[in-house]
Amino acid sequence: xxxxHAAQQSPPPxxxxxxxxxxxxxxxxxxxxxCHEIPEPGDFAGLPATxxxxxxxxxxxxxxxxxxxxxxxxxxxxxxxxxxxxxIADYVFFSHKxxxxxxxxxxxxxxxxxxxxxxxxxxxxxxxxxxxxxxxAKNASLACDYCHEQR
Length: 151
Fold this sequence. Notes:
By secondary structure, the protein is mainly α. The protein has helices at 22-27, 32-35, 50-57, 65-75, 96-103, 107-111, 128-137, 144-147.
């Protein structure tokens, strides 16, 4: 058996190319799935396309420097080069769709109270030990090949 994970201090937030407040956007009525779509087969939650952002920001705060930079990415057909906050190893299989549907997990189960944050940092541990703790708590499989590719 693996040892349970210890609480760790959150790392500083990564430097982002544009300021973005999840708190402010949630207060405006957006939900996670409005911007972070989970296309089939449902493994990955995406980052929003600039067209999604510009659907509102064509008018809202269009004079701000940040929105003008966003509009520049959009005009050039380039995605915003966001710095990832959460990442799991390439050899780990994780399906957002399965975790949301089967376990009753919500986005904040793994990502923390994002809706309350003006700046994101990694608040929740995504180590093997943290995943194993959750699997134990939810009576999910602890078999190695449940999450890891067979080699």
